UniProtKB/TrEMBL annotation:
Residues 7-47, 181-219 form the HTH asnC-type domain. Residues 155-179 are annotated as: Disordered. The lineage of its organism: Bacteria, Bacillati, Actinomycetota, Actinomycetes, Micrococcales. This is Lrp/AsnC family transcriptional regulator. Pfam families: AsnC_trans_reg (PF01037), HTH_AsnC-type (PF13404). It comes from Flexivirga alba.
Amino acid sequence: MIDFGILSEIDLALIAVLQAEPRASWATVSRVTGLSPATAARHWERLAASGVVWVTASPGEAVWSAHCVAYVEVTCTAGATLEVAHTLAQDPHALTVEVTAGSADLFLTVAAVDLSTMSNYLLRRVDTVAGITHTNTRISTKLYKDGSHWRLDARPRRRSAPPSAGLVTRPGRESAAQHADLDRKLSLLLGMDGRASYADLSHQLEVSEATVRRRVDQLLRSGAVILRTEVSAERVGWPVSAIMSLDVPVTLLGEAARTATRLRQVRLVATVAGRPSLIVVAWLKYLEEIHELEGQLVDTVPQLQVQNRLTVLHTVKRMGRILDEHGDATGVVPMSHWQNPFESADLAPA
């Protein structure tokens, strides 16, 4: 295990490189950091083994546009919050589960293949979990920024190609159905280890390495999948997470969302169907920075009003990763959000 304090400058530099290029070779990392490839790999393995860092694959912008994403505020009976959080964290459709202080006990990020499936999951699963007394759901209309864009050193990731709404199939022998099945299996494997080698992926899927390379490349270029190097927020000095619900006149909604994406602390910006119409999630170094961030937003868009704010007490799950009380990864629940929520007998309604 590593020291539970702030990470070293070497560790932070290594993470910064892999945030920009999550599958960068150790030779590339060496050129940027000055570490030898073996030393860089050793540092990374130590951090990853302790759950301080991990590379995962999350649904990309193309999937967010085509599928249904919702943000759900949950109120629980006294003493039931943690149990409810850990129960929902085992669901593939609940991508992120956070225990919060404020007007709600939990804040969920939920994904499903369509609105009907989302409704099925929320009404027949979430609303029936023992200990939940109230839920408030807002469906996302557009994702402007997600956690994959957040950087330790504030430098943006290079994008090789703009995302598209669908997958563009390269010439090959696989059928469309085979592509879909293989792509989903690849997404799950990359979600568990975004740096898994092509050889390992090829072995697990029993297809050629050339096919794996082609499909991974296509998933990334199409925007169906995005790789993200995640960190334990506490270990890198950003221990406070705030979730703000902002109300903005509809004529200024896009401007306000784009303004929020440019702020250093902000990790997620999404518009939603319902009021308040804008959700902003930020990582902060100190609790009092919440007011400073709100001031920055209002200074830029004076008509903006902060309607609600939640402070995250504990992130139980972040984009498929189960986290402990320090924010370190201890397990993973594959984000197979395209499945029927009740395919598993464990989720079948009573």
